[in-house]
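Subject: mismatched residue count in predicted assembly?

I count 596 residues in my input, but I want to confirm that the predicted structure covers every chain. Input:
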Amino acid sequence: MKEIKFIENIRARAAAEKDVIAGIGDDAAVLKHDSKQHLLWAADMLVEDVHFSLKDASFNKIGRKAVAVNISDIAAMGGVPKYITVSIGVPPYVKIRNLNNIYDGIFKICKAYGICLVGGDTNRSGKLVIDVSIIGSVEKKRLVLRSAAKEGDIILVTGPIPDGRKTHFDFTPRLKEARFLTGKYKISSMIDISDGIAPDIGRICCQSGVGCVISEEAVPLSEGLSIKDAFYYGENFELLFTMSPKEARRLFLDLSKKNSFKKVFFVIGEITNKNKGMYSRGKEGVLKKLKMEGYRHI
Amino acid sequence: MKEIKFIENIRARAAAEKDVIAGIGDDAAVLKHDSKQHLLWAADMLVEDVHFSLKDASFNKIGRKAVAVNISDIAAMGGVPKYITVSIGVPPYVKIRNLNNIYDGIFKICKAYGICLVGGDTNRSGKLVIDVSIIGSVEKKRLVLRSAAKEGDIILVTGPIPDGRKTHFDFTPRLKEARFLTGKYKISSMIDISDGIAPDIGRICCQSGVGCVISEEAVPLSEGLSIKDAFYYGENFELLFTMSPKEARRLFLDLSKKNSFKKVFFVIGEITNKNKGMYSRGKEGVLKKLKMEGYRHI
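Triage response: the counts match. Full output below for your records.
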């Protein structure tokens, strides 16, 4: 809980400003832009031996992931990524050719998502550190925050939960899915599963002032993944979102049609009253308290 | 030269985009915003044992500096800082109370400059790393790039060059000076002296396609500072800028009036033809080639 309390504290101290629609505490900050669009702004730092090891990953993949996690943040707000800056701390054992490989990975994913690299900072460092800052835009009506989930809403995920341990370098940010969902349906809250279903639905519950019940049997697991890891490991970057049962019916009806968007969304639980807390329902209906601790980076 | 070549390479690979007025290679990226203003966006990373040591500085000062260097980037473009995000890598020996002290420093300088903290990322790390990303705005007519210095322009600095080794935690970003200058005069190029006068005027020369001569005797040194350190140490964050002799005359005439802006600007050299290269003129008129290498962080 330390990180959450610390961030709550920082958030309380951050000055409010009329042009800040949403500040600390969502996947991205939301800033006023013009009459139709808001600006989205996020930053995600990857640290060697915390988020990756040079033994496990090529430089190319590390560069790709540093951008992908940021695209995922923009997707979780309903927006479109546009620009990045890359700040990088380079240890002595990372050579210029390795650095170029990191940028190969960065440029490749940027190209695939139409993102333009516009700046950054390059420094020496003891370990490899990459901090990508991303700017995106979102049409006002598509903006989804973490704070508007309502009692009675159902909880969905964008796909079977992959094993983050195996896929965290190669995951596809769920931008297409988020744009499909926010373009046609009223999504009451959304988050990318970077820390695990439990802490991430927990963030929605805290900020929306609601509780939840997740059905363990309903969580779609990729082969070999335990429900415990789905709840508490994270790094899988599927989107978790909520919508009213009425909107969900409309969504599933549309998906059942020919030539519809090709994607299966999974209902995994429902939003309850705050007083009911956060629980998972296991076999035989046993309720277990969900914890906020996941695979925490601090 | 490695960093410069590497950054040139990255810059050549970064895709051009119509909404990007200026990308990699200036103090901040310049993005289209509306009919009157551009958006400025910069990022600067501070790494423990590269930019600071925990023996030399309080956590408070480290937090302050992480923001101050970014304000300086926005000042160098002629703009006004507005928002920051803070990504931080926290080693085990930095405790929550230390982290709160870092944020004390961050919030204090943010308040002084009217900046709003809107997001960030907190992680574990081997060493303390702080990467601040800043967004500012600039009126189109005030925007100053590094690329428009012209042969015959004179080169100025915003004040006596402090000893960066002693002042780099406590320097005042020259925002007031930059706003004064860009509000009334045509500044052809500007940069903050983070790496030393030589590499920093070198950046202007490279990007403007010009040469320069700096008069060693004209460089205003703070007590005890050598001309070598003024040229090659950096971390002093005065602004170095260029303007036509006509504009400079107008500036100095205005400054000589009663009730004028209270500041002395120093002429330290002039912009020459590219073919003439980059030189300093020492005692007895001896010309010495200026080098691009400064106190490099990579």
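The first helix of chain B runs from residue 2 to 13. Marking this ticket as 'not a bug'.
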